Amino acid sequence: xxxxxxxxxxxxxxxxxCTRAPAPAVSTFDPDSIPDAFAVASGALWQAGTTRAYLxxxxxxxxxxxxxxxxxxxxxxxxxxxxxxFASEERWLPVVHWRRHDGPVDWDFSAVAISQSSPxxxxxxxxxxxxASNRSSQLAHxxxxxxxxxxxxxxxxxxPDVDSFPYGLPGWAPGASPALGWAxxxxxxxxxxxxxxxxxxxxxxxxxxxxxPMRAKTLARLARRTHAxxxxxxRRSATDExxxxxxxxxxxxxTERALRAACRVLLAARTRRGDSxxxxxxxxxxxxxxxxxxxxxxxxxxVAGFTAESRQLARGxxxxxxxxxxxxxxxxxxxGTGQALWAIAQAELRPAPDSGATRATDAALLAAGWLRRCRxxxxxxxxxxxxxxxxxxxxxxxxxxxxxLGNDAWMIAGLEAGERxxxxxxxxxxxxxxxxxxxxxxxxxxRALARSAHSDIPPSWQGxxxxxxxxxxxxxxxxxxxxxxxxxxxxxxxxxxxxxAGLTTFxxxxxxxxxxxxxxxxxxxxxxxxxxxxxVLAALLHWRDAGGGGAELFSRxxxxxxxxxxxxxxxxxxxxxxxxxLIYDDADSLHLTLGARSGWWTGGRVRRAPTRWGLxxxxxxxxxxxxxxxxxxVGVPTVLHLPPHTxxxxxxxxxxxxxxxxxxxxxxPGIGSARxxxxxxxxxxxxxx
Amino acid sequence: MSRARKQRVPLPTRGKxxxxxxxxxxxxWSWLLLLLLVTTLWLSSRSCxxxxxxxxxxxxxxxxxxxxxxxxxxMHRSGDVLAALPYYQRALEGAxxxxxSTHFSYAAALHSSLTGHRTTHGRQFALVASSDQAARFxxxxxxxxxxxxxxxxxxxxxxTVLLRAGDxxxxxxxxxxxxxxxREALALAPDDExxxxxxxxxxxxxxxxxxxxxxxxxxx
Lengths: 689, 220
Description:
A: seven-stranded mixed sheet
């Protein structure tokens, strides 16, 4: 009997399948041509409903939070360089490529995550193909070895159900079962291939990497579908999935692909709990639900046309409601109540309410009861701020224990959401009660803000803490009007610190936050500052990895440490901002082209866009002297915003009318097309001359 | 297998040529033994696949409520709060379910499991791995505290229950509910200094949250 060490050493084998004739080129895609804003390459292989994912590490290894797949590639004895990029095809598809160079040999990797359904949780596995190509004019000796190792001492993250292998890590199937990987003919601890590559010669090896130990027989069955077939499946599946949502055809490939990447992240970041689904904070270090993130994800999915997924997630949030009324997902985070109600309304009311509005109204009433009790208890104390929500200790980005202004702002948003849900459920009296409470608490909020010694909108009523929920007070909370001078001062302070409109800093000036300031972009739209909204969009588009994902927190030089992308809230921020630039329906009128970029006016179209007044289609275009809109008529007034840097030349024909500032045209309900005559603004015309 | 029944295998006789022999047919009892072994292994693997909670659940179901209650308390005392939960559930199905203390202990076990940690691979993980499970446990603990308070006849017992319910609210970040619970407890046990102190401390924090003990540490 061999000793384990001997077995480890002797198990080195040549993978028979590695020496097969090269398969047809999978793609001419060059991963290193795809932009990546971050300093370190990383990638994610993940799927909705699975409990683990694979991180593509800067070293070129794969890690799932429990064990690592070490990939050693060398030619003529020299190890291959680290990959520069882990790039998704078209920067959004779930097929990831990376390249490692190594003197004469190029190592091209392609991988895709597969969700393997089982009666319990769906299991994830990765289909990986490695292609070695000799670019030199001489024979090259190439060696590829994949082995498993434990997470090590300082892993980037650990899964809570991390495996223990007291007798050593299982090896490769078909030799081992259960196994941590499959390669044709492999057994033991290392799957390896040794190739003599003639000039221009190519060899290919294929591997399957499950996220949990898997039976050899199952792996063998899964391996029957070739890697090329798996890639085709993944591309088709992702394309079909996104085709169900809103189509943004803006003549702007970068933004369109960024939207697709964002939607993929939002759809993948879903966790299954029995028959329910919950939002997930990401594939790696944030695998849990935070209402403050999940609410954004649900809203973004709702406006992006993924009604079913959005409602599924929204209905999952009821698990967080206490019998007393508040929604709390993480201890001390009292903004959850308003966020949950807001998210539920975002999902339930677009494009039209269904029976879900009734249950949501009940939840809103329960939450309103909680607020009334808090206010009543506060009233008895006699303190100046006691009728606002009590202190929160969120142990999160506010980094303070205080009465957080954002908690009240979100509560106001939640009450408005509750009122809309109650009206949708035909419960007029409940809607009135919720509206009255919103007015009462909104009044308290406004008075407290007026009394605040802070010149803008502070993070907390005590004035302490980092900016967080207060940044949402204009939008989405609508607790502060967009034209409030305090809001303008908040913007000036926050963007002044970060160096201009775009992402905001967090903690030190050197750190940028991937989403917390994105709400200010929509605030800028509502305040008639589309250029600033444009800058926020530009920053969101820039700060993405080669897979199309944004991160949460990173330094200006692109380092993100262990805060691994992609982050769903960054994805949600991008979707919400672009959508609001085109279609904004949070107010009582439908606003179109509120901040559409100049380039989008060459014939922009949005199809299958859910709004609170139904599913709409929108097309818009302009010439130097006119602008045209065609859209699905709705039962409320529509406000058409002019292209950037233009103004009306003549008063539009009735029943259209110009807005007070002359930058928009107001259209009565029931009309779905308009044309106006316009001219460039003076300064634009001058600069053009 | 006992040592007495273990028999030595006879060695082949030296000098006698080895000839191929038809293997002896296995007796019927060995097939039965094999079947029993396979069944045991299968059941064992099923049991492993179900996880410790389900295993404990089926073990608890096999006990009487009274036995389950004793077992739950023993596990709870030894700190194995998660494992104790199915035993408490079983206990509540019988006579112990009419006693406030069983509800109280069950609530306390749920409550403790929310704040407990385990260390795996050198890192701390919450005993309850996900926020939705934590929310379910917290809501269940609250319901059990409320049931215990309604069953407890002695005011001091009810005060004890309400104190712990207040702690649950406080830990979860619902300070007004916690405060109300402490005050209700104090009304039942006016001379209880612990209850009074906890209510007073919270009152101070409600008025001046930015002061007082540690707060604002990042969970990320």
